[in-house]
Amino acid sequence: MNPNGTPLVNSSKATEGAGFQQALTQALRSVSDSQLKSDEMQRQVSLGNPTVSLEETMVAMQKSQIGFQATLQVRNRLVQAYSDIMNMSV
Which DSSP symbol is given to 19? Predict the structure, then answer.
């Protein structure tokens, strides 16, 4: 703490880091929920549930697939950025 009682750490930077982590966690949870929903709809269609249509199930499957592919692309770019940073000479 400074002599006037304020913390030495810039709190806005800590908040930004937590914001990115929270956004990433929320995005991963959303993709997971989408996949679980699509799996449940597939199961209901295969059991012959008349309230679940094949068309809605196919759309849910495509949405979950697109979300998964986007997540993989983000992961690949994060890994590449990390590798690039680690390979920099100091």
Answer: H
How far apart, in Å, are the Cα atoms of 5 and each of 2, 8, 11, 14? 5, 9, 14, 19
pTM (two decimals): 0.70
CA distance 48 to 26: 33
Torsion of CA 75, 26, 61, 35, to 10 degrees: 90
pLDDT digits 0-9 by tens, 43-66: 999 999 999 999 999 999 999 999
Q: Give the list of residues 6+ apart from residue 37 with CB closer than 8 angstroms, or none.
A: 60, 64
CB-CB contact of 54 with 45 (8 Å): yes
Tokens at residue 18, please?
């937590």
Q: Please give the share of the chain, as a percent, with pLDDT higher than 70.
A: 81
How many C-beta atoms lie closer than 10 Å to residue 49's C-beta? Answer: 11
- Domain extents in the chain: 13-86
